[in-house]
Amino acid sequence: GEEHYNCISALHKSMRGSDENASLYWLARMLEGGEDPLYVARRLVRFASEDIGLADPLALTQAVAAYQSCHFIGMPECEVILAQCVVYFARAPKSIEVYRAYSNVKECLRMHPGPLPPVPLHLRNAPTRLMKNLGYGKGYKYNPMYKEPVEQDYLPDELKGTDFFKEQK
């Protein structure tokens, strides 16, 4: 019932708050109470990107490895794997930079008046002669061919200068 959601919330918030003891407690309470370890492992995958993000990009690798390990060996052997992941996450630095930026992009899409802007011609794929004749891909600068970063626009004209990593109004 409701305790299922209360316990996963407590685990999530304990890891977010960097409390490794509370994190282990809530994990053990869930697992010893019969919670599906794969459910916990899926939540850890989400936590790795939502709460740790770019502060420690290896957190996602840890979470996926924990999920796969739980899938391979099951309970009770996988409990220590989940415990390791939970402590790693509690101790990890936290960043919601990508989470916020992606939320800003979604808001931009929802609030855009009328149809969304087209993909700029230079960014379009041109697999046919007709597409090439229409200007698809024309002027695109293939970055790996340059020693220095190239100046090139990647957003539609209407969104030039938009920075989704800054707070949106």
UniProtKB/TrEMBL annotation:
Q: Which UniProt keywords apply?
A: ATP-binding, Nucleotide-binding
**Gene3D superfamilies associated with the record:** 1.20.272.10, DNA polymerase III clamp loader subunits, C-terminal domain
Tell me which residues make up the MgsA AAA+ ATPase C-terminal domain.
17-168
Q: Identify the GO cellular component terms for this protein.
A: nucleus
Output the Pfam families linked to this UniProt entry. Answer: MgsA_C
**So which domain of life are we looking at?**
Eukaryota
Q: Which GO terms describe its biological process?
A: DNA synthesis involved in DNA repair; DNA-templated DNA replication
- GO MF, one annotated term: enzyme activator activity
Q: Which InterPro entries is this protein grouped with?
A: AAA_ATPase_RarA/MGS1/WRNIP1 (IPR051314), DNA_pol3_clamp-load_cplx_C (IPR008921), MgsA_C (IPR021886)
Protein name (Swiss-Prot/TrEMBL): WRIP1 ATPase
| Species of the source | Chloroceryle aenea (American pygmy kingfisher)
Lineage start: Eukaryota, Metazoa, Chordata, Craniata, Vertebrata
